Amino acid sequence: MTLPTPSLRPSRKISVFVFAAAFASIALAVTAPVPPAQAQEMQWEDYAPRSTLVVEEHEVTRAKFPFVDAHAHQWGIAEMSAEEIAAMVADMDAMNMAVMVNLSGGSGEELQAKIAATDMHAPGRFVHYANIDFETLDDPDFGEKAAAQLEEDVRQGAKGLKIYKSLGMYIFYEDGTRLKTDDPKLDPIWQKAGELGIPVLIHTADPAPFWEPQDRFNERWFELKERPRRKRDPVPSWETLMTEHWNLIARHSNTIFLSAHLGWLGNDLGRLGSLLDKMPNMYTELGAVIGELGRQPHTAKAFLTKYQDRVLMGKDSWEPSEYYVYFRIFETADEYFPYYRKRHAFWSMYGMDLPDEVLRKIYYKNALEIIPGLDPALFPDS
Length: 382
Ligand SMILES: [Zn+2]
What we know:
This protein is an alpha/beta fold. 40% of the residues lie in helices and 9% in strands. Bound molecules: zinc ion (ZN).
């Protein structure tokens, strides 16, 4: 501590005051409890500083245009009451969500029950994608049978096919061989989807850092700490799994594929862009990865402008207030505002201030192009 020197002293009275104040602060430091013990012992993952930045803020609780959520899951919608579905539709209306795509439709009777429930209680507001049951994979004609089931599911009202990440990672032949995403045995399914004119939304692998050592350099360290089961074995590698995914899309150019979660390339939009350039039948969506765009607003805005016909709005988990962060990133030029899930993004968000035409495409026009049977009347701007 430095006390004023005599030459700087404007008056003896002030100097005494300064000295007394300094002494008091020393005394306080001795007698007051040591700064809360947890300040030194707190774990890194508890650190949640409140930003002191003062800038304009524009909360957006309602999208500027009606939108389609191309990536949602409503497993139990057939068991929901009329009131529960009405409450969900009220939440959708409040944020301007015209249509929710339930990727978890299942197949056969399960799928039909979900379609019947929403047709009865909220016609036009939900669409359901079928899923593939891999139980009989070892049957020699598995691919043909699965394609026939898909055709039947679409006849019953399915509007797309959703493939879970189990394909590539957790589905094996009886002899223990891993079923690769681009295994030719599945070709009849992709071919059928193309013939039927339905999109295939396919989720392969996970964020690449799940394959990296969980050390202090790993950008998903916190997610792996909270969700340790997400740590992946080095083999098959992320690159291997995604290469199978890209091979599949390249090989079936008459089928539209939505590579889920920005194809896990939200952190490398240049690479994602070159894949989109190479494969005109490849689309992507934003489920659970908006935090990647929100940290690179300039690059992301250029990407979304260039690929405005290829990206669809998607959210993944159903929590209405979390959609507001998407809207704010798309529609405002706000700076350094929080994301809603620290394990995805411990960094802050920036808005992209997207032009209206780009917004319209991402919100609904691209969905109208590739998902059959959406009611254009729900999108009066179109
Ligand atoms: Zn999902």
